[in-house]
């Protein structure tokens, strides 16, 4: 019975992975014959990497030459010079090059490369200059519920549901049941392996909440990026920048006296070097640390998505040399194993982001004891505690 | 040469540098683990942190060069 269950699970997994690749493949099979395959593949990858205003699962051209899209529209919320404007993204009819104009209360809008432009008064259609920039339209403040926003809200609700349920179970029965049993070891892992060793026994409790939130948020969104829904939330610069700014604010606000002292006026080095070190430390704390956090997550996830989609695109690029069956088989095998690696990367990137956040917070709240005795030459005499620690 | 080609050469150099760095980190960590298998956990954590820092640097360079 157990073997049956396990093999059933394996088959379900395999079918899911196969389905996801075949759905990806479907959405790339666009406009065959008119455009070159290379350009088509580039466009298809770029389209996936970008955020979009509608949630489209796949599309195809039927026998009458009509484009059919499967998915659902999302609300567009704009703040223009004349106030709030809202409509559904289906009014653009999946057009992305500015040819479909939506008119609301005398204002005209067009969507060009997933960005919404407002046409200037009097213009009836968008005209472009040589660099393909719109000449008579300008961008507006866009608060739309885009695909990424849907992803973020979904994960927020999911985490709220899971963790409030887990907390309730701890209050009632001590031992979690159901999905809580999957979450408990992860929570304990983040607390005991990431928060406690890096922040220190005294302060770690205060920051564990943030670290857990950030860990599960990034991890679940990374995993969602591997499903056929094609979310690419942690591969959006805005999302990763926001997460990095959270960490920046937390370690800047909770930094103690020693932290600022070591940053602005480093003790124990010649006075002339101190201003130089202060500049380096300030640049490190306010620019390099957050920048490395945001770029690492963004680049890893985007690169992973590009690799998976390029391997799926082998189906089309090598169709003529390897025949359809050969190209599909090659693409299936390669993308299957890359997807397995991506599952690892999804966890690793969440771990690294949390780890480095904990490390930076730990640097800011570390307590240096200046109570050590000094001998006549000014050297520190280690106390018994330090000596014992060296031997353990 | 077109500017795009220079970008690609730069990307190649970055990847060579990052590869050498990651190889050093991984190799030394392996040696450390072989010498002291009981410290595997600590060595792995430190290895991942340093690899992540290096990776951040390489990605930053790739990103700015793009």
UniProtKB/TrEMBL annotation, chain B:
Domain V-ATPase proteolipid subunit C-like stretches: 9-61
Site feature (Reversibly protonated during proton transport) residues: 55
Subcellular location: Cell membrane
Transmembrane regions: 6-25, 46-65
Alphabetized UniProt keyword annotations: ATP synthesis, Cell membrane, CF(0), Hydrogen ion transport, Ion transport, Lipid-binding, Membrane, Transmembrane, Transmembrane helix, Transport
GO molecular function: lipid binding; proton-transporting ATP synthase activity, rotational mechanism
Membrane topology, as annotated: Multi-pass membrane protein
GO cellular component: plasma membrane; proton-transporting ATP synthase complex; proton-transporting two-sector ATPase complex, proton-transporting domain
InterPro entries: ATP_synth_csu_bac/chlpt, ATP_synth_F0_csu, ATP_synth_F0_csu_DDCD_BS, ATP_synth_F0_csu_sf, ATPase_proteolipid_c-like_dom, F/V-ATP_Csub_sf
One Pfam assignment: ATP-synt_C
Function field: Key component of the F(0) channel; it plays a direct role in translocation across the membrane. A homomeric c-ring of between 10-14 subunits forms the central stalk rotor element with the F(1) delta and epsilon subunits.
Alphabetical list of HAMAP family matching this protein: ATP_synth_c_bact
Family membership noted in the UniProt record: Belongs to the ATPase C chain family.
NCBIfam families: ATP_synt_c
Name of protein: ATP synthase subunit c
Name of the encoding gene: atpE
